[in-house]
């Protein structure tokens, strides 16, 4: 079953509205509703807060501020990952960023809570906040490490000498804006007291982190916190940790002894969930006339929050990508009084490759060389910084196959040289790389007396198809039809995992299922082959074949349900596990990544500078694929996001208050159907990476966005001859440089 294009097993539930999301659970009874009051300054202190009018409003049950909020646990910096730490709220009068919760109103209905929130009177003493990245960009510091524990800086060889001696140089700066995850389902939760316990229905990506974070904040035994999150309406990193809505709902539920629902409005999501940091990236490339890179450097400065540091691993992108003997990468942080940075789809690679792959296109133009050929000429034989072999690298094959399928030979050799009517036509391409990660995950597989299998883990399905691929892996592992495998996800009472995120979810959980099924097969075979009542008695278990609910050895076979009924009348189970990649020698002995190549054609209106994507094709190497249908969907989704990063997405900060000006979908633009042509496709090469895991598979959720925006940006340059280095590429940035047309 692995590798088959199976329809989503949860599809009928979602299509008919029977998939229950965080805000839709009713088993706890009629809830109360909460609404957050956010600060209207970006830095300062509350000098007066009056809740009397709000408390007297219809239906109001509670108004919580720092004056009456329960004591909470501190954020413990010794916990290595932010998402497992306490997230205390309403702890004092200080305001750290615009929109920060200053009060919570709880009422009988959502409308009552929202209306009463307007009655909370708050006066502030505003301080001078640091809101403008450009103003404070030179005031930086060096973080100890960057995201994922990667080194802050790296150096190989002598970059200054190598760059100085290069015949052809590129030395440019590229800027990327604040960007948001913005899944369809806003961050939401419902918390229900159950005796001394709390049941937390929440939209989150890592169940284990949510449980520990709630428990640490409320100073509870984690065993008394029960997370329920069977369906998540998208995450893209924004739900790896929990946020104010969950903590405040939990505080209110414990205080009132009643279930409390709390969701963020779309406008509040922009202020309370975190975002991809803005960045200024300097990329330096030095090469010979033959295109061979002698020196490569990537230096990044980005925003961080002064209280919760986040250093996106943006410069780490180039460390494994191209060969060059002299290398340099660095990260620097500028503290601003803005919401904290957080993981947004493909953290590091998404903004990093937008710059690096644009610079590679600039180098190709300076050399007069085909951009595909330039990348092939700089293909490394070993990881150029770690000096270890690649586990499985097929980037060159992606480049060549993509060029062939796309018709790259028709690319205009001279920028701004092809026109169709009023449209300037251009082609662009880029490479893609994304590190492959592995985290600790445990899965329990249970075979019931009737021969059906139940797979349990706290792993979440964030819309990517986890229910389906785990069904496929379980069905293959036990030789069962798909309909006889049931997946039970998203409950903290199940074995723990690292959830969904970082492109690790599918491979972690599937590998654990695979191992659990192997352990279960061993139990069944030991029982049957040692039982004189079984047709399999005395047979060699090594020759066993599990298929269609039976196990056969040679010409003898027996139904699984008969073995279970005879030896395990209450059912039999086994667990499978994966470990943290730091404990797996393959991850130190090999450079394990996914790869791709993107190709795009754009049209640019010669008079208005309107940019239209005409077609796009990407080719990927990701090891073994669990389900081609869901994989293609994920890859194309990432490609489209890259188009948005290149042309549309940009959150703008009001430098007076620290508020995001365009905090809704009217002002913060993302690609819609009218922006994306029907001619868009993702092709996956056959593959199997035996160093990644038992199944030979690697994550695909993020490699689709890596570099795809650069392909579009490079196509815009090819169409117009205008290079825009301040992303996104908008009309006002492109129009002044368009060539005059006769």
TrEMBL record:
Q: Which SMART domains match?
A: Ald_Xan_dh_C (SM01008)
Q: Which part of the chain is the Aldehyde oxidase/xanthine dehydrogenase a/b hammerhead domain?
A: 16-128
Q: What is this protein called?
A: Xanthine dehydrogenase family protein molybdopterin-binding subunit
């Amino acid at each position: 079953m692995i590798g088959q294009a199976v329809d989503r097993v949860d599809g009928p539930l979602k299509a008919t509205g029977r998939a229950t999301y965080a805000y839709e659970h009713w088993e706890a009874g009629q809830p109360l509703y909460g609404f957050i009051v956010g600060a209207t300054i970006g830095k300062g202190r509350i000098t007066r807060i009056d809740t009397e009018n709000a408390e007297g409003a219809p239906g109001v049950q509670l108004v919580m501020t720092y004056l009456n909020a329960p004591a909470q646990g501190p954020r413990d910096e010794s916990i290595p990952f932010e998402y497992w730490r306490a997230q205390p709220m309403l702890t004092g009068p200080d305001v750290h960023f615009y929109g920060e919760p200053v009060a919570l109103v709880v009422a009988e209905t959502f409308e009552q809570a929202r209306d009463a929130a307007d009655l909370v009177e708050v006066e502030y003493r505003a301080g001078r906040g640091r809101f403008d990245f450009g103003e404070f960009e030179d005031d930086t510091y060096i973080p100890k490490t960057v995201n994922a524990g990667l080194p802050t800086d790296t150096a190989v060889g002598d970059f200054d000498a190598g760059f100085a001696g290069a015949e052809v140089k590129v030395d440019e700066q590229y800027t990327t804006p604040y960007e948001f995850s913005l899944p369809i389902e806003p961050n939401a939760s419902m918390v229900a007291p159950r005796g001394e316990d709390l049941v937390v229905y929440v939209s989150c990506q890592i169940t284990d982190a949510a449980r520990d974070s709630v428990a640490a904040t409320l100073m509870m035994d984690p065993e008394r916190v029960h997370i329920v999150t069977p369906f998540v309406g998208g995450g893209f990193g924004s739900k790896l940790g929990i946020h104010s809505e969950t903590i405040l709902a939990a505080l209110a539920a414990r205080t009132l002894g009643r279930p409390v629902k709390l969701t963020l409005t779309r406008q509040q999501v922009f202020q309370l969930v975190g975002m991809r940091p803005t960045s200024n990236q300097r990329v330096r490339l030095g090469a010979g006339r033959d295109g061979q890179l002698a020196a490569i450097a990537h230096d990044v400065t980005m925003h961080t929050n002064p209280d919760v540091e986040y250093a996106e691993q943006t410069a780490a992108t180039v460390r494994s990508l191209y060969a060059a003997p002299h290398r340099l990468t660095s990260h620097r942080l500028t503290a601003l009084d803005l919401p904290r940075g957080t993981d947004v789809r493909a953290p590091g690679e998404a903004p990093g490759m937008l710059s690096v792959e644009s610079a590679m296109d600039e180098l190709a133009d300076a050399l007069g060389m085909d951009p595909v050929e330039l990348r092939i000429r700089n293909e490394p034989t070993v990881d150029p910084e770690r000096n270890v072999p690649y586990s499985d690298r097929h980037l060159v094959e992606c480049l060549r196959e993509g060029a062939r399928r796309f018709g790259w030979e028709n690319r205009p050799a001279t920028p701004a040289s092809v026109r169709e009517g009023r449209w300037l036509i251009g082609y662009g391409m880029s490479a893609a790389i994304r590190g492959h990660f592995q985290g600790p995950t445990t899965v329990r597989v249970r075979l019931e007396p009737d021969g059906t299998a139940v797979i349990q883990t706290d792993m979440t399905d964030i819309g990517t198809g986890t229910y389906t691929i785990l069904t496929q892996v379980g069905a293959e592992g036990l030789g069962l039809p798909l309909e006889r495998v049931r997946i039970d996800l998203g409950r903290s009472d199940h074995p723990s995992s690292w959830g969904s995120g970082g492109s690790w979810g599918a491979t972690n959980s599937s590998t654990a299922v695979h191992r659990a099924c192997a352990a279960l097969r061993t139990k069944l075979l030991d029982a049957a082959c040692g039982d004189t009542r079984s047709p399999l008695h005395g047979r060699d278990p090594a020759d066993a074949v599990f298929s269609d609910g039976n196990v056969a050895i040679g010409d003898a076979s027996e139904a699984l349900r008969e073995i279970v009924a005879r030896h395990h009348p209450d059912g039999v189970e086994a667990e499978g596990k994966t470990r943290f990649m730091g404990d797996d020698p393959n991850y130190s002995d090999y450079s394990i990544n996914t790869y791709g190549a993107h190709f795009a054609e754009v049209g640019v209106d010669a008079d208005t500078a309107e940019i239209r994507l005409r077609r796009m094709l990407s080719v990927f190497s990701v090891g073994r694929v669990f389900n081609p249908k869901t994989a293609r969907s994920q890859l194309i989704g990432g490609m489209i996001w890259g188009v948005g990063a290149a042309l549309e997405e940009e959150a703008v900060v009001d430098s007076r208050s620290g508020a995001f000006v365009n905090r809704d979908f009217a002002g913060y633009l993302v690609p819609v159907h009218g922006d994306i042509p029907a001619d868009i496709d993702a092709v996956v090469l056959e593959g199997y990476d035996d160093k990644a895991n038992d199944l030979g598979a690697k994550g695909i959720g993020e490699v689709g966005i890596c570099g795809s925006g650069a392909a579009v940006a490079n196509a815009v340059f090819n169409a117009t001859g205008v290079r825009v280095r301040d992303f996104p590429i908008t009309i006002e940035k492109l129009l002044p440089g368009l060539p005059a047309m006769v």
